[in-house]
Design a protein that fits this description.
This protein is an alpha/beta fold. It is built from seven helices and nine strands. The strands form two sheets. It has a five-stranded parallel beta sheet with strand order 2-7-1-8-9, sandwiched between helices. A four-stranded mixed beta sheet has the order 4-3-6-5. The longest helix has 21 residues. The structure holds guanosine-5'-monophosphate.
Length: about 190
């Protein structure tokens, strides 16, 4: 599994989505994992494309039936990786890029211990706050919650996370090139 499963983690606002969107289209054999979540869809998000949007009850049923590789409560919503999605993609010979929070990655490793971990960091906490405010898709309260979580997550990831690679997303094109290099040659990465 070493060169087939890639797990990216980043605090929200680290620029992970932009980075991933820029790079993943260049790799037709890599698909982006679609998680299940109880978070409400943001503008433009489509069920089954960006996430599988679930009610709390539906999600808790998935947990009870052991249908998730891992799951976690992130920013007061459930997020989890459906087993069926991972198994189907692997059966089709695809590599998969996951976006998991730091704690989700630790649980993911219990099932797939040989994934490649990529930690995406913002240049600084001040910059992260600026980006979250600019994005303005969330309320001030939500932004503060995300920022507090980000500080905790980054700290935890540095101390306990298993990430082979760290990308500091200072300049987008430079960060994108680093991600390309990791994904490019699975037998050298
Ligand atoms: P967002 O709501 O901005 O799309 O995602 C919020 C956070 O949820 C991100 O930090 C992302 O890494 C995390 N996340 C997304 N999908 C999953 C998942 O399947 N499992 C876990 N543990 N975290 C996820």
């Amino acid at each position: 599994m070493k060169h087939r499963l890639y797990v990216m983690s980043a605090a929200s606002g680290a620029g992970k989505t932009t980075l991933k969107d820029l790079v993943i289209q260049e790799f037709p054999d890599i698909c982006y994992s679609i998680s299940a979540t109880t978070r409400a869809p943001r503008k433009g998000e489509i069920n089954g494309v960006h996430y599988f949007f679930k009610t709390k009850k539906e999600f808790e049923e998935m947990i009870a039936k052991n249908e998730l590789v891992e799951w976690n409560l992130v920013h007061e919503n459930y997020y989890g990786t459906p087993k069926s999605f991972v198994e189907e993609q692997l059966a089709q010979g695809k590599r998969i890029l996951f976006d998991l929070d730091v704690f989700g990655k630790i649980n993911f490793d219990k099932v797939y211990p040989e994934s490649t971990g990529i930690l995406i960091l913002p240049p600084s906490i001040e910059e992260l706050k600026k980006r979250l405010l600019q994005r303005a898709t969330d309320s001030e309260e939500v932004i503060q919650l995300r920022l507090d979580n980000a500080v905790k997550e980054i700290d935890y990831a540095k101390k306990h996370g298993k990430y082979e690679y760290t990308i500091i997303n200072d300049q987008l094109e430079k960060a994108a090139q680093e991600l390309r290099n990791i994904l490019k040659d699975p037998y050298q990465a």
